[in-house]
Amino acid sequence: MAKLKTQIPNLLTLGNLTCGVLAAYVAALGRLHWAAVLVMCGIVFDFFDGFAARMLKVASPLGKELDSLADVVTSGVAPAIILFRLLLCFHGWKYWALVAFLMPAFAAYRLGKFNLDTRQSHSFLGLPVPSNALIWVSIGLCAIHPDWAQVALIPIEGIDRLLLSNPALIALAAFSLFTDWLMVSEVPLMGLKFTSFGWKENWERYVLLMGAAALLLLFGLLGIALSIVWYILFSLLTARCK
């Protein structure tokens, strides 16, 4: 029984990996909505494997390495294929869509760096890989299933035509290069772990979460990507003011 207990976090991590493999497969087939859902499921597994390891007090070096391997697939390879399929909608030279496949390389480098860097226990240096994945998952869902994006207080009519226009696709490709760089950068970003719940010591986290909740309420699925952008900007602003 004790041995099974130590494997519970690893089983959750393997669930993350399985979701990532399936997401990459269905994304390659062009079923981007299922790919996006599977990536989100994988990220949920990714959250709970660490939570389970801490709760059961069975964290191990093996679990840490498994977690990084799973994240490369679920939050690196699968979102890259989603972005690649979106960029193929560009009416012109198609090979430039290959820029999407830089994402897994930067994700892998960040995860390897993160495993060796002891400075990131309470905050982050650079953009976490799952956060980057959520940007492209939400944009992909809005582009492919605009009806899903309309479940919001401010629905954006024709969001699919907007996101899949040539200017928008060029902007998305450029933004992907920026987020790739941000993953491996030394830019300080706020950690979300609460050691207490008082306002005075956690006001930045509360403001961040309230802003993210407002964006999700106002913009629905697109609010996921906007919330990550808000997280980056707010972290930079608060870091500069200190």
How would you explain this protein's 3D organization?
The longest helix is centred in the N-terminal third of the chain and has 27 residues, at 2-28. The protein has helices at residues 2-28, 32-56, 61-87, 102-116, 129-144, 146-149, 159-163, 166-184, 199-219, 222-241; strands at 124-125, 188-189. It contains 10 helices and 2 strands, in the order H-H-H-H-E-H-H-H-H-E-H-H. The chain has one domain: CDP-alcohol phosphotransferase transmembrane (TM) domain (Four Helix Bundle (Hemerythrin (Met), subunit A), Up-down Bundle). Helices cover 74% and strands 2% of the residues. The mean pLDDT is 85. It has a two-stranded antiparallel ribbon with strand order 1-2. Helix 1 (2-28) runs antiparallel to helix 2 (32-56) and helix 3 (61-87) packs parallel to helix 5. It is globular, with a radius of gyration of 18 Å. It is an all-alpha fold and 242 residues long.
